[in-house]
Amino acid sequence: MGIPGLFERISTLLLREPEDREQVLLLLHSAFEKNLMDADALSIIEGALAASETRVTDVLIPRAQMDVIDIHAPLDEILSTVLATAHSRFPVVDGDRDNVQGILLAKDMLRMQVEPEFNLRDWLRPAVFIPESKRLNVLLREFRVSRNHMAIVVDEYGGVAGLVTIEDVLEQIVGDIEDEYDFDEAHDNIRQDAAGRYRVKAQTEIGDFNAVFGTCFSDEDCDTIGGLILRHLGRVPKRNELVSMDNLRFLVLRADSRRLYTLVVDRSPRNGTDADESASDAASAREIPNAPPPTP
What is the Rg, in whole angstroms, of the alpha carbon atoms belonging to the chain? Predict the structure, then answer.
C-alpha cells in the first residue's frame, strides 16, 4: 500500500469531529507539528478558512487609488495610461468615478492596429458591481462561475468605494502573487543597508540565501527562508521578534497572524544580544534604504 496523501492524512485527524473553527485550527497545527503538512500548506488552508470571514471592504483597492480611463479621453492618452500602469483591466468612467461605464481589457487596445476607427465604447466589457460586505469566499466562487477578474465595489449609498480583483482575493489565501510587472522583482529579495544588515523577503529561496550568507541550510523540507523559520519555531513569529540560527540573527520586520513577509538579517553578536540592542535594531530596521543585492 502506498503512502497516504496529504488530504487522507488530514481527514484521519479530522475524524475527531472538531466542534468549532478553533478546534479545526488546532488539529491543523497538530498536523503541521507531526510533519503531515508543511508550513505553506498550513498557511493556505488557514487562508481559505479566513476567507469565509473576510469582507471585500478589507481587501479592496480604494476609490482614490483606482487607475481609471475616461471614456472621452483621446487614444494617445489612453495608451499612455495603459503603458504606465501595466494593468490588464481598467474601469472606464464617464467623468465621475461613480459613473462606471464598463471594463476595458488592455489586450483590446491591439484592435487599434487593424480597426480604421477605434470606438472605445464598442470594446467595453460589462462591469460587475458588488457590495462592500460580500465575503471573499463567495466572491471567489462568483469570479470562477462568471469568469470575471475584476469587480467594482459600491458602498451602501451606491457610490464607488473601490475595486477588487481575483488576484486580491487569491493573495488573501495563498500569499502575495508577483508577476513580471511587480515592482519588487526577484533580484530584490535581498538588500543591504549602510550598517551591513540585510533586508530579506521571506519568499527568498534557501539556495539563494545560502549563496549570499555562506550558510548551509537544507531545502529538503521547505523551499524558502520564511518556511525555514516557521519550521524552526513551529509557529508564525510576531513583528520585531528575534530568531537566531547558525550564527545569524533574524529580526521579523513584517508579519501578520498567518504569514511571514520580511526579515532583517545580520550576524549574531559574539557576546549575545541584550534587550537594548534588540530594541535599537527593531527601531532602525523599520526603514532600510534600497541598495544593490549583496554578492557572496
Answer: 23
